[in-house]
Amino acid sequence: MRSFPLPVRVLLVNQFGVNTGFYLLIPYLATHMTEDLGLSAALAGVVLGVRNLSQQGLFLLGGTAADRLGVRGVIIAGCAFRTVGFGLFALGDAPAVLLAAAVLSGVAGALFNPAVRAYISVETPLPRRAEAFALFAVYGQTGALVGPVLGSVLLLVDFRLSATVAAGIFAVLTVVQALVLPARAVPAAPTSVFADIRACLANRPFLVFSAAAAGLFTLQNQLYLVLPFEATRATGWAGSVAGVFVLSTVVTLVGQVRITKALRDMPRRRTVAVGLGLMGLGFLAPAASYAWPALSIAAVVVAVLGLAVGCMVAQPFVYELVPAFGEEQVTGTYFGVFYLVSGALAAVTTVVVGWVSDLGGWLACLVCAAVGLVCAVCVRIPERTATWATS
């Protein structure tokens, strides 16, 4: 970590704090609204859906704002918005206040997620960019592990205390970044925002890559959908779901940086394809376990390991490749479009996987395997219209 530039080190710590604050609160929000506040499950779903839509739907806004206004200011603004949003969760009980809090926290994520990745891309020398994103994943995963544990302890007192602490974490992050992140002059853009977006959408290799990367996010989502179901089926114990998350987290913390360093000399598209293929192939094990039930527990372990290792192989290089499709001054816009395209496709694909799960768990596992393999092939589709700089 110490070998990276100061802004990158700050953003690594920032990612730990962001995930700690987020997972300290959000996993317990639905229970708070339904049990503590007596709201209907439908209304709780609306609040959570609005938060997700505010974030996913505005990634493009965050990306273009980073290019035009500067990544530093957008990151700081994002953390400030989330401070206010999580503060409202602590102070308000009315549905209107909860919706406002959801919108603000979603907009916050839309602002700082593309901006942070754009900042790391610009500040890190190209030979070490994937390693920076590997460390970024480790810090984020650590925060995602610490957050729920801390939240469960604070909930023994009160949900409002959890929300207040989460808001306080984002307030500290806002101040630290304002003091430490260096201010950089933002050069005047030679083209308009809409021209930059049109250039992204006209970049066929970039769109193919973004669509293929949707497989990464789709399969990651199965940590919350298919794999918990398979773990419960295999063990007959709902508590085994926690083991899925612990195994995935520990493997990532131990292996992410090592794997990225080991693969840094491989062609990037090939590396991403291998990672997506591993993620998909892991789901063949639980699909096969329907024919051999005695292997069900081992099959779930294989699927979790395949998902974790494949993600470690692919994800840092996915983030490294995104800026390679455009000029440096539009890095934020490219990250915004990337998240919009891949996130939308991942959302649709995850709905399909959920629908198929009702027909049979084995079929859902086969669909997940197919998603990984098809996306791995799509990453390697030769493109004649552009040269991929890092291939």
Task: Give the SSE map.
Blueprint: H1 6-25, H2 29-36, H3 41-56, H4 59-69, H5 71-91, H6 95-123, H7 129-154, H8 159-180, H9 193-202, H10 204-220, H11 226-235, H12 240-262, H13 268-281, H14 284-289, H15 296-321, H16 331-357, H17 361-379
Helix pairs in contact: 1-7, 1-8, 2-3, 3-6, 4-5, 4-6, 4-16, 5-6, 5-8, 6-16, 7-12, 7-15, 10-15, 10-16, 10-17, 11-12, 11-15, 12-15, 13-15, 13-17, 16-17
Pfam family, one: MFS_1
Keywords: Cell membrane, Membrane, Transmembrane, Transmembrane helix, Transport
InterPro entries: MFS (IPR011701), MFS_dom (IPR020846), MFS_trans_sf (IPR036259), MFS_Transporters (IPR050171)
Describe this entry's structure for a reader:
The chain has two domains: about 5-180, MFS general substrate transporter like domains (Growth Hormone, Chain: A), CATH 1.20.1250.20; about 205-380, Up-down Bundle (Growth Hormone, Chain: A). It is about 80% helix and about 0% strand. By secondary structure, the protein is mostly helical. The model is unreliable at about 380-390 (pLDDT under 50). α4 (about 60-70) crosses α5 (about 70-90), α4 (about 60-70) crosses α6 and α4 runs antiparallel to α16.
Q: Biggest sheet, open or closed, and with what strands and sense?
A: none
Q: Sketch the topology as an H/E string, one letter per element.
A: HHHHHHHHHHHHHHHHH
CATH class of the largest domain: Mainly Alpha
CATH fold naming of the largest domain = Growth Hormone, Chain: A
Roughly how many Å apart are the termini? 26 Å
Number of helices: 17
Level of helix content? over 70%
Which class best fits the helix and strand makeup? mainly alpha
**Binned strand content:** under 5%
What is the number of strand segments? 0
